[in-house]
């Protein structure tokens, strides 16, 4: 340091030297008098704003940049703030601006402004936000696709298992009833063999459409596998569940499926069971397993007893607490 100071003589009292130093800074620097007239305007200020020194002879900085009060006192001394300006060519830029009021020995008041162009950084921030939003939406779509059956648009088997576990936990906390129904298409193999698998796919999609019109928004309808579907009816006792299952069965029976000139009607068989909170404190997974098994057993009895009907599982018929 001593070696450098011996060879470098800097006259900081020389205004011309200071102006040359400020002129080469990579930061926009402007010095204004008390009236707002520009006394000094460095090269970087011209590059950032597009206003060259000659263009500032007859205007003030406030004229160039709308909203900048050149006579205002520092709101928080020494703290920079973000400003949106318009360049001479009309392009909007974002700068970080800092300023201070100065007084000369002759008591002449002036203000020095220093500003950095942060436009690209702001654009990058906006881009990051946009990208993050796109990634979030893509993740949501992937999650929906992972939970949704592609043919019917209903929940798939895995997603239903998650939902019913959540609902059983909630049901136990609030001591509310819960019903589960399972149904499948009668003689579905014959339907495929007669009309083709594409018509069979249309049947399954049609069933999902009918289900959306019959069941409540809070009911959960899922494709359990193949032509088998399962429905969870929160806060619903077995008699109400049977009534809505009968309404659904009738709606399917009277719904004509059409596909490329082929028309046909199908029927469904349905098994229903229910769960009401008791004092045994069973494990959630055991309750879920029992509900699905009981609904499947009731479905089997519906098909064995003639199809196109709704059957209640014996467990759900038992008096509560027995």
Main features:
single chain; 322 residues; alpha+beta; Beta-Lactamase; Alpha-Beta Plaits; 5-stranded antiparallel sheet; 5-stranded mixed sheet
Description:
By secondary structure, the chain is an alpha+beta fold. The chain has two domains: 2-122, Beta-Lactamase, CATH 3.30.450.20; 148-317, Alpha-Beta Plaits (2-Layer Sandwich), CATH 3.30.70. The protein contains eleven helices and twelve strands. It has helices at residues 2-7, 15-23, 43-49, 61-64, 119-147, 157-174, 188-195, 197-214, 238-253, 284-304, 314-317, and strands at residues 28-33, 38-41, 81-86, 92-103, 109-117, 178-185, 220-225, 228-234, 256-259, 262-265, 268-275, 310-312. It has a five-stranded antiparallel sheet with strand order 2-1-5-4-3. Strands 7-8-6-11-12 form a five-stranded mixed sheet, with helices on both faces. Strand 9 (256-259) and strand 10 form a beta hairpin. Helix 6 (157-174) crosses helix 10, helix 7 (188-195) crosses helix 8 and helix 8 crosses helix 9 (238-253). The relative contact order is 0.09.
Note the gap between the termini: 95 Å
Which term fits the overall shape? Answer: elongated
Main β-sheet, spatial strand arrangement:
2-1-5-4-3
Q: How large a portion of the residues is in β-strands, by DSSP E?
A: 15-25%
CATH topology grouping of the largest domain? Alpha-Beta Plaits
Overall residue-averaged pLDDT value: 82
Number of helices, where a helix is a run of at least 4 consecutive DSSP H or I residues: 11
Name the CATH homologous superfamily of the largest domain.
Reverse transcriptase/Diguanylate cyclase domain
Structural class: alpha+beta
CATH class of the largest domain: Alpha Beta
CATH architecture of the largest domain: 2-Layer Sandwich
């Amino acid at each position: 340091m001593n070696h450098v100071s011996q060879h470098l003589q800097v006259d900081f009292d020389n205004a011309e030297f200071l102006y040359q130093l400020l002129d080469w800074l990579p930061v926009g620097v402007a010095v204004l008098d008390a009236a707002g007239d520009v006394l000094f305007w460095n090269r970087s200020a011209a590059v950032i704003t597009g206003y060259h020194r000659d263009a500032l002879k007859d205007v003030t900085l406030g004229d160039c940049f709308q909203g900048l009060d050149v006579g205002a006192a520092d709101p928080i001394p020494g703290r920079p703030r973000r400003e949106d300006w318009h360049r001479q060519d009309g392009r909007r830029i974002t700068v970080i601006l800092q300023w201070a009021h100065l007084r000369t020995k002759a008591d002449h008041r002036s203000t020095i402004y220093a500003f950095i162009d942060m436009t690209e950084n702001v654009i990058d921030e906006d881009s990051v936000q946009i990208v993050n939003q796109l990634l979030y939406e893509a993740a949501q779509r992937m999650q929906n696709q992972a939970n949704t059956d592609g043919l019917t648009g209903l929940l798939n088997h895995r997603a239903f298992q998650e939902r019913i576990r959540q609902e059983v936990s909630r049901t136990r906390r609030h001591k509310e009833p819960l019903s589960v129904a399972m149904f499948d298409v009668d003689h579905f193999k014959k339907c495929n063999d007669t009309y083709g698998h594409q018509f069979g796919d249309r049947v399954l999609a049609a069933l999902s459409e009918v289900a959306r019109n019959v069941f409540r928004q809070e009911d959960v309808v899922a494709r359990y596998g193949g032509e088998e579907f399962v429905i969870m009816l929160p806060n619903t006792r077995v008699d109400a569940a049977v009534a809505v299952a009968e309404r659904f069965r009738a709606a399917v029976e009277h719904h004509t499926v059409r596909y490329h000139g082929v028309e046909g009607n199908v029927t469904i068989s349905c098994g229903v069971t229910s769960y009401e909170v008791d004092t045994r404190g069973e494990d959630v997974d055991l309750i879920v397993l029992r509900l699905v098994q009981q609904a499947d057993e009731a479905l089997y009895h519906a098909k064995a007893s003639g199809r196109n009907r709704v059957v209640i599982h014996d467990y759900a018929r038992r008096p509560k607490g027995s």
